[in-house]
Amino acid sequence: MASVPSLASTVQQRLADGLSAALPDAASADPLLRRSDRADFQANGILALAKQLKGNPRELATQVVAAIPENDVLKEIEVSGPGFLNITVTDAAIVRTLAARAADARLGVPFNESAGTTVIDYAQPNVAKEMHVGHLRSAVIGAAMVEILEFTGESVVRRHHIGDWGTQFGMLIQYLIEHPHELDHTAEDGAEVSGEEAMSNLNRLYKASRALFDSDEEFKTRARARVVDLQAGDERTLALWQRFVDESKIYFYSVFDKLDMDIRDADVVGESGYNDMLVETCRILEESGVAVRSEGALCVFFDDVKGPDGNPTPLIVQKSDGGFGYAATDLSAIRDRVQNLKATSLVYVVDARQSLHFKMVFETARRAGWLNEDVKAVQLAFGTVLGKDGKPFKTREGETVRLVDLLDEAVDRATTVVREKAEKVGLTESEIVENGQYVGIGAVKYADLSTSAARDYKFDLDQMVSLNGDTSVYLQYAYARIRSIFGKAGDRTPLAHPELELAPAERALGLHLDQFGEVIAETAAEHAPHKLAAYLYQLASLYTTFYDQCPVIKPEPAQEVAENRLFLCDLTARTLHQGMALLGIRTPERL
């Protein structure tokens, strides 16, 4: 089905027609329409137009209003102040527009006409290392942006740029050669290895190899030689390296499964995936003059990047000893994503503390011609997760919080909240457990996504699983409440009645429902999932007011009124369900 014009676009067209009829010289002028608290919409464009035409803005506004014929969309247009137009639409126009949205599986949300191919780099854990709270935001924000962009019609390629290369692997592999059973599993043959067991093996091996590396010079020498073997592609060394990667994936995937997140093996392309490109990347940069040799290293310099001493701080692509740093890998990844994956947009969901690195990498790629007017790169930079005290989130012992512990505690807290309400709704034990998972993981995701990515936020589980305030649970309960209404509706069904006069709470809810497509477009264009979260919270709040003021079942309203209100309930539920799904959050039918 074709996308449904929003009320805003319909009103915009009516105003544009009035402008061209009243002022033919200004036929292409923009009415500058926006949503308003004073009326349904406000148009401010006549002020700028009056300057251009050297006319009185109020008089011009009056002429434009007079040129708009009576119609079934615009109820009232008031000329206000120096020439603003305050516009109120008819109740019928609201209901008709919503009915068209309801008839569409996509709720009338249009596809982006200029959609292209976006590669999103997110959820980047490190091989042989435990995931901690610092890995949460990249995974949650990235997964939401994948869903949102795909919903708008963008072709999205997921990339998990895991840390699977580097000098520490010499130490790990050498230790495994000398202690060959350290990664053996205790699980019985055929049984799946748990993520916890995989991580336990890796942790034990990492600590033991690090202790030996720090205390035994001969082992340190053997480990460094093993790095050379790894980089040279020695078969035995690569096979052992692969064991570390495979063991780590068992663990990664168990954590992403807890996060209710789909991570596919083909999307995991770590640092090692670009090894074969590094030499050529350096050659291209050096031959084109983008990078130059400085004290033996291959560097890219920038006028606006200087160290504390005032001297230029370069991006080092290749070290003086011939080794490659992160820059070489990141630049090779850009080449691959642009030239092989045909990306028109690159989005990196990476900690804000790496902003300078990515600024230099993107500028280098632009100088090399890999990024240009047709291919953009952006860092979706995110802030830090803080504890309740406003300091970086740590355990009582001062250690970084393990991600699995944090998620398990969220689910435990949420299950307690669900259990308290379970008897009233008649939930079974299996429903309580399942809903506890959905509420707990939803609470963690929503707390992250409802904050602007660039800002730090406090991780406060008590607040996150609260039934009051701007929380995921509040939205999930709003959805479940609507679903319960349909269980009590008997033979009454949702049906739009444009001929009915709407109560203020119905109008407010209807006008907000109509904005869903605009909010999705804005969220996608700005890579700002917090805007969708804010829209959904306001939708649930407006629904709560509607529910309190507009009886749907009891006291029983007239049949047409009941049908129209059920229609508003149904469209609200579908919008909540779709919006929450785009954020990666489940909406249980009963809660």
Topology:
Blueprint lengths: L6 H16 L10 E3 L5 E3 L1 H9 L3 H11 L6 E7 L3 E6 L1 H12 L14 E5 L14 H16 L3 E5 L8 H11 L16 H21 L1 H16 L2 H24 L19 H10 L4 E3 L2 E4 L14 E4 L7 H14 L5 E7 L3 H13 L8 E7 L2 E2 L16 H23 L3 H21 L7 E2 L2 H4 L7 H16 L16 H10 L2 H11 L2 H21 L9 H24 L9
Helix pairs in contact: 1-3, 2-3, 4-17, 6-7, 6-8, 6-9, 7-8, 7-9, 11-12, 13-14, 16-19, 16-20, 17-19, 17-20, 18-19, 19-20
- Name of the CATH first level of the largest domain: Mainly Alpha
Number of strands: 13
Number of helices: 20
Mean pLDDT equals 93
How many domain regions? 4
Shape: globular
Category from helices, strands and their pairing: alpha/beta
Low-confidence parts lasting 5 or more residues at pLDDT below 50? none
Name of the CATH superfamily of the largest domain: Isoleucyl-tRNA Synthetase, Domain 1
Order of neighbouring strands in the sheet with most strands: 1-2-4-3
CATH fold call of the largest domain = Isoleucyl-tRNA Synthetase, Domain 1
Strand content: 5-15%
- Biggest sheet layout: 4 strands, antiparallel
CATH architecture classification name of the largest domain: Orthogonal Bundle
Give an account of the 3D structure:
The protein has four domains: 7-89, Arginyl tRNA synthetase N-terminal domain (Gyrase A, domain 2); 168-267, no CATH class; 270-382, HUPs (Rossmann fold, 3-Layer(aba) Sandwich), CATH 3.40.50.620; 403-582, Isoleucyl-tRNA Synthetase, Domain 1 (Orthogonal Bundle). The chain has 20 helices and 13 strands. The protein has helices at residues 7-22, 45-53, 57-67, 91-102, 136-151, 168-178, 195-215, 217-232, 235-258, 278-287, 326-339, 355-367, 403-425, 429-449, 461-464, 472-487, 504-513, 516-526, 529-549, 559-582, and strands at residues 33-35, 41-43, 74-80, 84-89, 117-121, 155-159, 292-294, 297-300, 315-318, 345-351, 376-382, 385-386, 457-458. The strands form four sheets. The protein has a four-stranded antiparallel sheet with strand order 1-2-4-3. The chain has a four-stranded parallel sheet with strand order 6-5-10-11, with helices on both faces. A three-stranded antiparallel sheet has the order 7-8-9. Helix 6 packs across helix 7 (195-215) and helix 7 (195-215) packs across helix 8 (217-232). Residues 475-591 form the DALR anticodon binding domain. A motif ('HIGH' region) lies at residues 125-135. InterPro entries: aa-tRNA-synth_I_CS (IPR001412), Arg-tRNA-ligase (IPR001278), Arg-tRNA-synth_N (IPR005148), Arg-tRNA-synth_N_sf (IPR036695), ArgRS_core (IPR035684), DALR_anticod-bd (IPR008909), Rossmann-like_a/b/a_fold (IPR014729), tRNAsynth_Ia_anticodon-bd (IPR009080).
